[in-house]
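Sample entry (492 residues):
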Amino acid sequence: MSLRLYNTLTKKREEFVPLEEGKVGLYVCGITAYDVCHIGHARSSVVFDVIYRYLKYSGYDVTYVKNFTDVDDKIIGKAIAEGTEIADISERYIKEHNEDMDRLGVARPTMAPKATENIKGMIRLIDTLMEKGLAYVVDGDVYYSVESFDGYGKLSGRGLDDMMAGARIDIDEKKRNPFDFALWKSSKEGEPFWSSPWGNGRPGWHIECSVMSQRFLGDTFDIHGGGEDLIFPHHENEIAQSEGATGKPFAKYWMHNGFIKIDSEKMSKSLGNTLTIKEVLNAYHPEEVRFFILQRHYKSYIDFSDAAMAEARAGMERLYTTLKGIKDALGGGVDFSDTSEKDLSGEDEDVWGKVGMLPGRFTEAMDDDFNTPMALGCIFDTVRILNGYIPKDSAPTREMLFVLSEAWGRIREVGKVLGLFLEDPDEYFGKDRERKVKKSGLDVEEVERLIDERNKAREAKDWGRADELRDLLTSKGIALKDTPTSTTWKVG
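Predicted structure, serialized as tokens:
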């Protein structure tokens, strides 16, 4: 089966056929750099990161462009409030964004252009729209005339008449139509500006993405993506600008990810329920966050809650536990270098046959509109088979080690496409334990010190002190298990 994806423009699933064989141009709208990123940004970033990874895994040469809006009313407002320059604000939050994405394991795009680096291109595009009679000037502001573009509303599926009938918008006497939008804004006192044929000013928001995508991907490219909140007006306006100027189709396929809710409520600053990526990553491993996002189809909404994240953590722990079992078995030192698939029989052959199906099943799932829940299900099916196969009380045979080695490689191969299983299992469990311990108000060294003190109290037969230390650790969520030779512990 070839890759099929849902195209917001046509409202149906279509076979993906790139404009140029073997190559893909992908543009995704990035952040407006005025604040730290929240969990909604994490969803969009992870979704398109996986799409980027899967296209490359499928053999495509992908040019991935994701922009930064670094001049905007919100950025200007924050700069004025802090008494600094807009570049200081935007650079601060671009740096914060990149740190968050690195922690989430999101690959850097091929290009990450900034709006202010492309002002000349925006002026040229606006000038073209003026020449074609698609834009007009009022007091130094330049507006796009939506009525002059026949296709306006084709992405959102709403015609202008329908929009007007249900509109609740502020009336601007400068505009010929309430839905006309700014291509260029005349400068106001204290704001940054650039010179243009229409006077000093700065670009509107929508024109930025038209210019940056055109610069790096051409007049027409393969996939344009973003959150579903961008369908209207941002992406609708991009189409009007770009196609109005070039007379060519803008993007062949449009993809949009769904919202994240917080405890079943829409996330918004007015409700005070905005969760930053930093806050989430302080509590959860990055791969647990990715797992949480990928366990629902990218077009569906997803509900963030402590219970949902606990399930995501449990899922990742099950997967990493199997990988650790494989790693421990492979550490036995048995040489299987002369073993091959043809040497297998019985259970070894049966398990190998099922493990060998994983890449094909994974590809089938991802070709179904990037169905990451189904892809994860394929991985769990493989893990369940392996859990009954990994030797528990006996040394693995050479044939077993061959099968487990191949399973290790295949699970990590498909996991890499999802940005999962990138750590050694022992590192994963070590970091997970550290995070859990921190939530208890302790750290690993302090826990080990208290356990050592308790062991010494037990050796001295000071049972009262030993019980006191156990109770202290238990109150912090630290569970102890005494054995004849040592004391082990875990969190929760």
